[in-house]
């Protein structure tokens, strides 16, 4: 593994550098990936930059503090004849090293506060998608698009068959062989991906049908818990068409690791075509239309609207949280 | 001081009971109970460690090779519960039991019989907890945080809840005992601001324990009644709120994090001055920093919940409060470095572990600061970045401090010196492999690998394999530790001096090594020069 690993790591580095600095679409984790991805939404560079800046600050402080410590450990060794001094107090020094961190923290807090403020603003969205987490699959319901309600477009999204067979204990199948084209999609592919348009502010309303899940696509820059009885809201605006992969990020039972998320972002005309086809399909045969609650949904989900009110978190109020 | 020594000699003759059962099961002696705590913690450390080995073995390469996902979840849950409540906390209580009376010049703990009870609850609590692994429905598998509604699906919930109640009762009694001892039993002249930092850190930790263990007990009791008695605290179908549990749990959980690190700060503040042969820099600032961290720990709980959809104002408040903790923590790190500066240092095993603690704990602190930034946390939360973060503060933080203190006080406990060579072999193996184990987990988290998953995409394969190799070797290195301890306790020929370390100060070094069964039956006469911080002006 080693020599090939080194060569592969160099390639990965090159890809990473290109992805970070060249603005290339970068949708799934790469081998030897070292840093957070920049993402492909209008907001996703905020956590990315915050991550890089705070890491940089920590590295500089680390070099200074650990540097001083190593100097001390070499200079003030008993074996080098160092004689211990007696002082144990220095007010100036203490004031300085209390004040400087405070200033650094104020800078970081300022940047982070701006990020939260823009993330929390779900107003002005052009599309709404309802996301519901179940053990162990996701359900997507399209609520509205460009001011018009969408009726009966919704489906369940679960782990693809190829990954599902491979991941069984002692399946004897090779995870490295699970591919779509050139890309390994082991545990990161689904039967029905969420299809959305690019350049559109999409509002997600996220809830849980049984236990708590968390909806996370790294390329969008955030994750948000899917909690039974509560409707959370968040938004994204994807810049580049592509396939973006993520996973459930809250322990939700034995198959928590096997309920991935795939978002396919299409250009607006392509999305309009896709949506029209879906609407036509659901309008035609009544049997093909997804029922309001699928068989697997528990009674908890069926009662969701009432519980929401009881949990003191109506969809409008949930906007900011 | 010589007074104490003669007295101890006299006591040695009718000291420890000869009968094994009487000596260990009915003991009211702080040293014996301290030893029991430490042996118990070491046992749990190896049991919890074996769970971690299962986790790392399954994650060695993509695909499921060894265990079913449910069993994997039992392992992550039990690993955390056993390590937190069985290894780290009892180890600190054991150290407090052994050392606090010796450090403040008290003959024993204030409440010796309660001391016996608070220890002997633990083996029963953990038997109850570990027995769930052998039950038909399996053990708890919803994570140590036991979030409902998932935790309510656990068949063995009642066992886990009662085990936690028992551990909580034990911790609260231990904390009451420590507070009573420190406030009432100090030798005349041992003013509060002359106490060793370790004693201060335990005094503050004990208050945290009393404040938050009942909160945990309440939270798990609500789980119990939700599951078995038809209440709906956390059930949205009955008007409850699953997020309420998380608020209650983390109101316990964040102070709990500091319960596991403040005594470690105290330990490092004892060891660094000893081996730098220079008094600790800024004694009062150190004490004040511990107190500030303890206070702040009560107002930061929701930083564990940034992804649950809190209102924006709450996210901002908890972010600012969390970032503030960096200030007193930074002061502590700077003060340790300043203590070394101008010292006359030697690097015996306790000092090596202390130095590793300062560097690696600080790395864990840095990732903690990054995690505090809400927008970045939206990406980090519940990934391996978090796993790396808390293992840096708990393994290279709390655990390294416990190991450092064990080497530091072992000569006082056993009367013999451990093997410095094998101690250093243990140190270098631990410090190298622990980084091979946990450092790559930062990269995994940043690349997008969630926590608590038994299997992963092949993109994560390289670093997982490296991490697993580090894990196996770190685990194996701890067998060296076991060997050093057994050798020192039973076979070492090298007698320890009363003052085992040249630069060591404090009352514990004025009694013989091994410390006699009874010490300070007559309060010692305090000579400020003998104390690590005898001069209040510093």
Can you give a write-up of this model?
The complex is a heterodimer of chains A (321) and B (538). Helices cover 36% and strands 21% of the residues of chain A. In chain A, strands 1, 2, 3, 4, 8 and 11 form a six-stranded mixed beta sheet that branches. In chain A, strands 7-13-12-9-10 form a five-stranded mixed beta sheet. Chain A contains seven helices and 13 strands. Chain A is of the alpha+beta class and 321 residues long. Chain A folds into two domains: 45-120, no CATH class; 127-320, Cupredoxins -  blue copper proteins (Immunoglobulin-like, Sandwich), CATH 2.60.40.420. The model of chain A is unreliable at 17-26 and 288-321 (pLDDT under 50). By secondary structure, chain B is mainly α. Helices cover 67% and strands 0% of the residues of chain B. In chain B, helix 9 packs parallel to helix 12. Chain B has a single domain, classed as Cytochrome c oxidase-like, subunit I domain (Cytochrome C Oxidase, Chain A, Up-down Bundle). The interface between A and B is large, with 114 and 104 residues.
